[in-house]
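Issue: ligand-bound run for pyridoxal-5'-phosphate - logging full I/O for the record.

Environment: standard queue, default settings, no custom constraints.

Inputs:
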Amino acid sequence: MTTSDHGSDHVSDHVESFDSLVIHAGQHFDPITGAVVPPLHLTSTFVQDGLGGLRGGYEYSRSANPTRTALEQQLAAIEGGRHGLSFASGLAAEDVLLRTLLRPGDRIVVGNDAYGGSYRLIARVLGEWGIEHTVVDITDTAAVRVALEAGPAKALWVETPSNPLLNISDIAALAEIAHAHGVTVVVDNTFASPALQRPLALGADVVVHSTTKYLGGHSDVVGGALVLNDDELAERLRFLHNAAGAVSGPLDAWLTTRGIKTLAIRMQRHSENAQRIAEYLREHPAVASVHYPGLAEHPGHEIAARQMSGGFGGMVSFAPKGGEAAARRVAENTRLFQLAESLGGVESLLNHPASMTHASVSGTQLEVPADVLRLSVGIESVDDQLADLERALGQATVG
Ligand SMILES: *Cc1c(COP(=O)(O)O)cnc(C)c1O
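Outputs:
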């Protein structure tokens, strides 16, 4: 094999399974030094060899940067899509997607349990620019059909498992109904991650991520992504990505790529720990209800078992007995589960959605009950996690 053969023969061309793709997709060693890890290109601009003589197509880092390209190839590969785009945040990705798909007067159909910030963007930001929306119970396929038949719609926004109530909707069934009406199906895959669920293979048109969560995986970077197959839509998204400019910076892209390499193994452990915790909470006398798609009695369990593989994820919601006051006491008494917004990192976090992540949807159809607590179950020892919850639940009932 000659040197030049070697240079174009990438490890990623020789791997197919997900566990290998997370490590190798887009990650070509540096051709100059042989560095195994692709360099972090902290540069805003690129020297040209004469006018228009771009090296590798790079001219300015808002338009493209090699570190971001490496991440975008990795993102596309792990979601099984042709195109990946990386953004400064999940909401920046959603903003570009929605403004590309919708024009004033167009309507989007949204699930009634979704990330509060997504709903705020649709209802309060884009609503001001003439975008209309309808909220439906997205787990009820018949209700979605009625909402789509009620009038023209351009997009259907699906989040499964949903934030924060872990509701499950049937991606393949929804895609079939939506496509019959010429409606684009968007799936926010932040909670499952492609390690457990691949929406494009189930019929979705576009996958959205807050890479801040499981993909980054270490609570050290904010980012977002879009992955899709349609060449024409990808072209329009790339246009607004560059024209509006909410791209991920090289360091953020590099950190996200590094996080993704351990995604497969992290999701396995997140799911194992969360399953144990959900089963523990279900038996606990101080707990009124538990939401986790891995529990056989969860209303979406069968669909989740069909459309997810390798586990049900690391997110668990529950309501302690005693209403909001008890929930607040639990929230203030855990120690390993630190009280903070966000999710998907290696460390366990606890959130009170009604007053924290979902405060912005209070008073809307997406309002979250005030007695619900959301756990982002980390990959620490499950024994330490259980001991922490046991202590906090004991104190909640005493108070
Ligand atoms: C956090 C989150 C978002 C928003 O992403 P940011 O990176 O915070 O902008 C969107 N959807 C879901 C499900 C999320 O959890």
